[in-house]
Amino acid sequence: MRNNILSACGAFLCISILAYLNSFDEANLWLIPPFGASMVLVMAAHDSPLAHPKNILFGHIISALSGVLVFLALGFSFITVGIAVGLAIFLMMSTKTVHPPAGANPIIAVIGGQGIDFVLMPVAVGASFIILFAIIYNKLLNRKYFSFKD
């Protein structure tokens, strides 16, 4: 029960900070829904390979980039949403950076008509924040999350 509460508190704190930053920066979005799912992994399944920092960062970046590139090349349609998600999965698997929450990024990119800046902000910056937070929070709790030896 204690671990459940600490995991929930960690997710609350990290997402609240991102939401707070989001509320002050009208030019940039700091928070996207896939980050909530990423928090489930780094707080509740922190020892899973899917929660590894490399998977979080590159999974989110690759998926967002897939969506942006498909949108820029082909525009929006029900087919391009599917192509973008399929491409993201293919690339994450090929690079061994599978991170399931990142599978939502191409949908956001295509439906929202996002440009290349979306990949940097909020995706890369937000994913980096989540990783840093997870490393520190899990270290404070003496939970195995990530070590530079991994």
For the record, the count of structural domains works out to 1
Cα shape = globular
Describe the main β-sheet briefly: none
Task: Compute the average pLDDT.
Answer: 94
Give a count of the beta strands, DSSP E runs of length 2 or more.
0
Order of helices and strands: HHHHHH
User: Percent range for helical residues?
Assistant: 55-70%
End-to-end CA span:
28 Å
Low-confidence stretches: none
Q: How many helical stretches? A: 6
Query: Radius of gyration, rounded?
Result: 15 Å
| SS-derived structural category | mainly alpha
Q: Strand fraction band?
A: under 5%
Quick rundown:
The chain has 150 residues and is mainly alpha-helical. The protein has helices spanning 2-24, 34-44, 53-74, 78-94, 105-111, 117-140.
Q: Mind explaining what this structure looks like?
A:
It is a single chain. The chain has 150 residues and is mainly α. The chain has one domain (2-140). The protein is built from 6 helices and no strands. Helix 4 runs antiparallel to helix 5 (105-111). The longest helix is centred in the last third of the chain and has 24 residues, at 117-140. The radius of gyration is 15 Å and the shape is globular. The model has no long low-confidence stretch (mean pLDDT 94).
